[in-house]
Amino acid sequence: MQIDTEFTVAAPHGKVWNYLQRTEEVVECIPGAEIDEKISDDEYKGHVTVKVGPLSLTLEGLAEITERNHDQMILAITGKAKDKRGRGATDATVTAQVHPAPDNSTRVAIVSDLRVSGKIAQFGRGVMKDVAQRIAEEFARNLEARIAADSDPSLATAAAGSGAKPAEAIGGIGLVVGALTRSVGRGVPGLFGRDKS
C-alpha cells in the first residue's frame, strides 16, 4: 500500500536538506525510534516502538539509505522489521523530497510503499494513513526544534527534550523508515531495514 504524507518546516530548504544527512540526529526526531548499531554510513540496525489501535509492538530490523540525490534533494530508504514476539512484520520503501516553500520555509513530501503482515495487517489503509500523518507532524515539530537549536545554541536544551517518544501508531517505522522515515518518516514502520540473518 502507498501512503503519501507531507509537512512543512519553518526553515530554509537547504538547511533542512543538510540536517537530514545527519542520520542519528534525525532518527531521534522520529517518535518511538532508536538506532542500536551503525553498520555503515548508509545502514543502521535499530528498533521502533509503535502502537496500532490496542496493539503495541517493538519492531526490530535494519534500514538502508539507498539514494541521496543532492541536486533534487531526494532521500530514499528501504527497511524491514519484525516484532520481537512474532506478532507482525513490515517492510517499506520510503522516499522523501525536500521542496522550497513560501516565507523561507520547506515542504517535505514523503511517499511510503508499505507492506505489513501478521496482526498489524488487520488495520486498514485509513488507520495507517491517519497514524502516519500524526507521526509526520510530530517528526516535523521535533525536526524544526533541532534545526532552530542548530542556529541558536540557547535553544539546544529545548530541542534535546523533543526527541524520540513512544509512537502512537504504525507510522513510526514506515515514515521514517519511515520516515527517515517517516530519515525523513516512516516513522518511520519500515524504518529499520534489511534483515541479513
Brief digest:
This protein has 197 residues and is of the alpha+beta class.
Structural features, described:
By secondary structure, the chain is α+β, with helices and mostly antiparallel strands. Helices cover about 25% and strands about 40% of the residues. The protein has five helices and seven strands; from the N terminus they run βααββββββααα. Strands 1-7-6-5-4-3-2 form a seven-stranded antiparallel β-sheet. The chain is globular, with a radius of gyration of 15 Å. Mean pLDDT is about 75; it is low at about 155-195.
Average pLDDT figure: 76
Work out the number of β strands. 7
The amount of beta strand, in percent, is 35-45%
Overall helicity: 10-25%
CA-based gyration radius: 15 Å
Please count the helical segments. Answer: 5
Overall, the morphology is globular
Low-pLDDT stretches are 155-197
Provide the structure class: alpha+beta
Strand/helix succession: EHHEEEEEEHHH
Largest sheet: 7 strands, antiparallel
Termini distance? 26 Å
Q: Which sequence of strands runs across the widest sheet?
A: 1-7-6-5-4-3-2
